[in-house]
Design brief:
mainly alpha, 12 helices, 59% helix, 3% strand, Helix-turn-helix transcriptional regulator, Cro/C1-type_HTH, Lambda_DNA-bd_dom_sf
Length: 254
């Protein structure tokens, strides 16, 4: 039963990530919205046939859904708003959290940053309580974040990122051999958009796999590296007036 409940939770997460509502799934399954809500409220009531239809609507393979559910069972996928607020409010805690997600060990954090051993242990214990890590004997650190981990949309961390990080991150011409910025524009359907979102998520997983494969290297051979990927239905504000004109023309033809 626990596995079924986790599968349902993962399914809800994937629907939310793709902007799909219960009413969308109701149309796919030819059910009422209330019936769909009851299906999602009872972990053991969704048949494989219905699950396959829902996955098809999300452009998500069933095998990928099962894989994500398995990862979510073992690892943390999201913090609560209060937990995110705790991270933002405590700069030292946020620093330690960033370090450990980048693969730093206890002694490496002490070596690079002006933190006492006592304070560092306190912050690691705090992250252990948040279930971000497991603090093991001899101050060894086991990260417990899932590859599908995501911040709350519009939450404290995302707001902090938008206010404090984006401007600094993009203050470069991306001309170095360790930099890359590409922007592509085109007309795309929602199903194709969702397929690309899946590819982006897989790329994020590959990013962390590459970081893990470099763990055996020294800190001198590794460098702090960040990757930002963004995708949404969006047009340049400069063309808003033309969008409105096109919309008016369409309505007048109806």
């Amino acid at each position: 039963m626990a596995e079924c409940e986790q599968l349902i939770q993962t399914l809800k997460q994937q629907l939310k990530l793709r902007g799909l509502q219960y009413q969308d799934i109701a149309r796919v399954l030819d059910l009422s919205e209330g019936s769909v809500k009851r299906l999602f409220a009872n972990g053991g009531s969704i048949s494989l046939e219905r699950l396959a239809l829902i996955c098809e609507a999300m452009s998500l393979e069933m095998s990928e859904l099962f894989k994500l559910a398995s990862e979510n069972t073992k690892h943390l996928t999201q913090l609560t708003r209060q937990q995110e607020e705790e991270l933002v409010a405590d700069k030292a805690l946020l620093l330690v959290a960033v370090c450990i997600t980048n693969g730093y060990r206890f002694e490496q954090i002490l070596e690079q940053y002006n933190l006492s051993e006592h304070v560092l242990i306190q912050k690691l214990a705090h992250l252990d309580r948040l279930n971000v890590i497991e603090l093991l004997p001899e101050n060894r650190i086991k990260l417990k974040i899932s590859p599908s981990f995501h911040w709350i949309a519009g939450g404290p961390i995302q707001q902090f990122f938008q206010q404090q990080v984006i401007r600094t991150f993009f203050s470069t011409y991306f001309s170095g051999d360790d930099e890359k910025l590409v922007m592509s524009t085109g007309l795309m359907s929602l199903p194709s958009n969702h397929k690309f979102q899946q590819k982006i998520q897989r790329l994020v997983g590959e990013f962390y796999e590459a970081c893990n494969s470099d763990n055996a290297l020294t800190m001198q051979q590794r460098h702090g590296t960040s990757m930002v990927i963004a995708m949404r239905r969006w047009t340049f504000p400069l063309f808003d007036e033309y969008e409105e004109k096109a919309s008016d023309t369409t309505h007048s033809k109806k």
